[in-house]
QacE family quaternary ammonium compound efflux SMR transporter (Halostreptopolyspora alba), 140 residues
Amino acid sequence: MTASSPQSEQPTTASSQHARAWVVLLVAGVFEIGYAVSVGGSQGFTDPSWSVAAGVFFLLTVLTLSLALKHLDVGIGYAVWAGIGASGAAVASSVLFDQPLTPSRVLWLAVIIVGIVGLKLASSPQLTAAEEPAEPAARQ
């Protein structure tokens, strides 16, 4: 049985951290939906129960977003988080508050979702590593 070197474990560890960061980012997006819906339900923070829920969801979404951004690019992570929150809040608000969800809104929400999926696929560790320029040869 051979001991594995730390170098051989590094890509797996980095890859699993990257995958966990995406899961945490999805959770942050769900909390963002809760925050946006709660702010809407609070009616300008005049309804105490919705206002407390907004405060709790705010803390949860900021905490989980900051944890995810430890291992993801800020621009990509923030864009995905905002997209999940925006599209999810639109759907949840249509259910909870009877706000209209017209075909044109559904179309543009679908565009946001496709963009989120595209960002996720474009930031996979394998694709990122393949796009990095080769290191120059050592000078003699």
